[in-house]
Amino acid sequence: MRVPTFVKSLRGVKTWKEAAGWLDWRGIEDIECITPDQAGVARGKMMPSKKFTSNTSLALPSAVFMTTISGGYPEDGNGFTYPEDDGDLKLVPDLSTLSVVPWESDPTAQVICDLVHQDGRSIEFTPRNVLRRVVAAYAERGLQPVVAPEIEFYLVRKNPDPDYPLEPPVGRSGRAIGGGQGYSIAGVNEFDELIDDIYHFSEGQGLEIDTLIHEVGAGQLEINLRHGDPVELADQVFMFKRTIREAALKHETYATFMAKPIQGQPGSAMHIHQSILQKKSGNNIFTNENGSETEAFRHFIGGMQRHIPSALVMLAPYVNSYRRLTQAASAPVNTKWGYDNRTTAFRVPRSDPAGRRVENRIPSSDANPYLALAASLACGLIGMINKEMCDAPAGTTVNEDEIDLPRGLLEAVELFESDDALREVLGSDFVSTYAAIKKAEFETFMEVISPWEREYLLLNV
Hints:
Helices cover 34% and strands 18% of the residues. It has helices at residues 5-8, 16-26, 49-52, 127-139, 185-189, 192-204, 230-250, 295-315, 321-324, 369-386, 409-418, 420-426, 428-445, 451-456, and strands spanning 30-36, 42-48, 58-61, 88-93, 99-100, 108-116, 143-157, 209-214, 220-225, 253-256, 270-278, 337-339, 346-348, 358-360. Strands 7, 8, 9, 10, 11, 12, 13 and 14 form an eight-stranded mixed β-sheet that branches.
């Protein structure tokens, strides 16, 4: 008997009938119905596969998407109101994301879900819907964004006590990994077995890694993904983070996406390459017929220069994120741009005219990929709508120059709430909810006394 093509697909089916056949052919027993919360953490429910395909109604409390990273809830105010009834939101599986969970011992599958109100209305403040809203704003103008994320992360020794600093792991050589391993093949080879598992887990889910390199930091790696649709690529980053963590745990190691996990080592970024296509022609709107740059290209950069400071809280979402954005630390500190200049916030890589794109180097790897992509693309779109012209390109080192980005979380939230153009594109409900969460997280952080305070204030003040 000939096996249908869809059954062999590693990732995604089109209909519920195909989903039932796909699950049955693999002998799947359980399925994880997951969706990203505001932090990008997978939330959801697990159920037997037979129940999944029998029109079962799935729901999660709305409070799940108003929770801080420490499990608390924000105070009402500035447009945010905590729902008194804490009503349910419906989970709607996106069958195009159906895949196996390769690290589970029992046959298990997973599917990413969208969220809607009980009456079917879209929900404005959930991360996947925020990104869909931005992509839809492009589609209304006949445009299609194309993105390619690059995600940096650290492998560190297991750290069950958070009072102790993180340490680099021990590689196959038996020695602790040191820094200065940028693009070192030997550095990658230190973790051969772990990286093999990352590849195997990724292949099992139908996820495509373009390249993998060792970055400059001790035990710091970077994975580059192939370019594509923003929602699909955000889904892949969401799944890759789960995959990398699971592969690391299998080898008694932590994988962390903290922006600045180790003092004295470089931070971890999530660089985003962006280009915009005309939907009808498929042409890159950043390039004229003669190969020169278009006005839209300059306006896109201009919009990012003008509005990224206001959107920074979506790209650098935690107090730790701002430890990465410091002068001369291999990270941007302002909104300057340039051609193949890695010290700028917005780099235009070398490419042929058809591949002209803008790399946003500001986001840190701790950012929710849906929200980081939504923020970056929203700023570029505002620039094109309002025809905001960019500055002259920088041709020198500029990450030692004056800092013109917010220096901390509260300052970033204040700018975020005051940018009306950004609020209109992202949705007022999301802006109010997200800002309230970030303020609550900052207050929780302020309750913790740091080693620096004990070191320098205990006996000196």
